[in-house]
Amino acid sequence: MSLLCAAAIPANDSVNIDHGAGLIVARYQNRVMVFALACPHENNAVKWVAKDHRFQCTKHDSQYSPDGTHTDGRATRNM
Predict the structure, then answer these.
(1) What is the average per-residue pLDDT within 48-68?
(2) What residues contact 21, with CB distance under 8 A and at least 6 apart?
(3) Rounded to two decimals, what is the model's pTM?
């Protein structure tokens, strides 16, 4: 199991993905959040859509705000 290091935390509002640990590290509005790389709906990979400032499931297109709040799609809970 790998540990999250300070270098993985984005300096500004942005996202870093640690594939080895299966984590997403996000900085948004002066908060740092860490999420599982898997969508809570069916555990498929979640990607960051930079142009829309949101996360999206790669299988069913569920969408999440930068703080992990579910906003659209099949998922029924937050990241």
Answers:
(1) 93
(2) 1, 2, 3, 4
(3) 0.82
